[in-house]
Structure formats: C-alpha cells, structure tokens
Amino acid sequence: MFVTMNGPEDHNHSHTCFEEIVDPSYFELSDYLLLEDDFEEDSSVKTMASSAENFTGSSNGFPCREASERINSNIRCNSGRKSKTATEFRVAFRTKSELEVMDDGFRWRKYGKKSVKSSPNPRNYYKCSSEGCLVKKRVERDREDSSYVITTYEGVHNHESPCFVNRNYKQMSPAVPPNRGSPIPLSPNFS
DNA sequence: CGCTTTTGACCAGCGC
DNA sequence: GCGCTGGTCAAAAGCG
C-alpha cells in the first residue's frame, strides 16, 4: 500500500503516489482484518495482525507495506483453502490517520455517502474506476476513536495498480498474476 | 469534454 | 405489511 498526503479529492496527485509517500509517523496502521463472507459468528472476523508496534518497526519504515504483503499472503492461503472466487474477499483496515481516504495506488470513484446508525460518522462508498473492475471499498471513521479510519476492501482487482502501470513497475509485482489482482496493491520493492 | 463528487431517491433485507 | 437500516443508483453540479 502506498500512502500519500492526498486523497481522491486531489486528483492532481492521485497518480504520484511514489513521489509523495507520507511520513510513517503521520500514518499508523493498527489493525487489519481478513473478513469472510459468512459472518455467522464474530469469530469469523479474524484479526490477522493487531498491534501498531508490529508495523511501526518494519524495516522499510512503512507499516502499510508489511501489512499489505501479509494480507496478500493470507488471501492466497485462504483462496486455496476455501476455493473462494476473486470477488469474495473482504479486507478491513483500521488505520490511525488524519486522512479520511488514503491513496492505495488505485483510482476510486465515490458513489455514495451514508450516515449509519452504528456510527456518528458518515460512511463513504467507493468503486474502482478501472473498467470492468468490481472492487469496492468503504471508508468510515472509527466510532470509538475518530482518529482511526476503517477501510474495508471488497473484491480483488483484475488489473494492475495504475501506479505500477504508469511508473513501469509491472515487473516489480510478481505476486500479482495477470487478471488476478490483489484487494490492495502490493508495494514495489524499495530496496 | 470527460471525469469526479454530491446527495436525495430508491431498493433489498431484516425484525417485529 | 410496515418501518428501519445499509447499500446503490443516477441526475446535477463542479473541476481541470
């Protein structure tokens, strides 16, 4: 995942994510969840990694990247175990950020905003702008701590991140096979 | 002009 | 059937 100082509101910079990576201290990933479709019980929501300390200590200094890699790893595992289709995955992030929406490398089109009863903060709905890609994401502030943002991805991208394409980073994302993207973009190898 | 956001309306699912 | 709630649609407006 790539983090920039801009959100969808600022499309002048939406494709410059490699140039404006935010200070890691500004953004803190605290939780990310791998959600399964059949929410029969709470235990189906699995916290794959929970503490912020796990990520702030990442060697590359970007907590999101490690989370991103772990998630893609987990999704591949889950895919094999449960034979899920590419559009059945749901991944939720809980991030500490002042930014409502963080640039993850993909282009999103906002299609709805709704106040939900379970939260005092409105929930925003986005679809991937890429033609034929049905990935959606929901973004809302944590009702218990508005300094946290909960981002839920639904589905798997069937295309590369525009960042990879635009910056010719295709060869740097071997974990994303053709026509089988990831719910969030894998970050390039900075080393 | 093309793309995005905004926002009220609409729809489906669920509980009563 | 009715009301509530969450999710989506689509027209209008804004922006570069």
Automatic annotation (TrEMBL):
The keyword DNA-binding applies. One of its GO terms (molecular function) is DNA binding. GO terms for cellular component: nucleus. It holds the Pfam family WRKY. Residues 97-162 form the WRKY domain. SUPFAM superfamilies: WRKY DNA-binding domain (SSF118290). It is found in: Nucleus. InterPro entries: WRKY_dom, WRKY_dom_sf, WRKY_plant. Keywords: DNA-binding, Nucleus, Transcription, Transcription regulation. This is WRKY domain-containing protein. It comes from Eucalyptus globulus (Tasmanian blue gum).
